[in-house]
Amino acid sequence: MLEEEILIRKARAGNHDAFAQLVERHAPVIWTVINRMSGDAERSKDLFQETIVRFWKGLPGFQGASKLSTWLYRIAYRVCLDAVESAGSRSESSLDEQFESRGFEPIDEAVSGRKLENQVAASDAVARALANLRPEWRAMILMYYWRELSVEEVAQVTGRPVNTVKVYLHRARAELRRLLERGGYPPEDFE
Fold it and tell me: Is 135 left (phi over 0), alpha (psi -120 to 50) or beta?
């Protein structure tokens, strides 16, 4: 990580090339977090840009108390929560947009039509349930399960105590289960 520390120092001093390298290095993770939180590819582009702007503006104040990636998660998390709060509503996206944002492709081309149909149904049901969670819970679920951050890292990103994160994750899982069941998932004939 010595190379990253050098890039951070250069970027903090105003070196645009170093900043661009940091953005390029962390862009895939930032994009994934934002896209999964927003559920809307077009909106995600705007949120990504806002995250990069906040990254640039905040970089001089970055002290290195946490990893740069954790700090960037926190920026992306705040940008998404701010957008959700200002919009005041949750957006629903089409199934095609959801697949595009998730990069859904069957791994095995010999997958039966029924199994593929069940995978599509599962993906759609989970996406709808996630969209109906409180934004903070949704963010924590996404960071913990999709980005595989530890509870401690989620606490750093969200600024919440570790025990609060554990409680919120527990409540979020229970709410997801309730939303999935209320939505009729899984269907009785699910393989």
Answer: alpha
Q: Please write the tens of the pLDDT for every residue from 62-104.
A: 888 778 888 888 898 889 888 877 765 444 444 344 444 444 4
CA-CA distance, 52 to 46, in Å (whole number)?
Answer: 10
Residues 6 or more apart in contact with residue 79 via CB below 8 angstroms? 34, 47, 50, 51, 54
Q: For the whole model, what pTM was predicted?
A: 0.57
CA proximity to 140, closest of 110, 103, 165, 109: 165
Taking the C-alpha atoms of residue 178 and residue 189, their distance in angstroms, rounded to an integer, is 19
Residue showing tokens 């998660």: 73
Q: Which domains does the chain have, with CATH numbers?
A: 2-182 (1.10.1740.10)
Do 72 and 26 form a contact (C-beta atoms < 8 A)? yes
d(CA 56, CA 97): 29
Per-residue confidence band for 122, with pLDDT thresholds at 50, 70 and 90: low
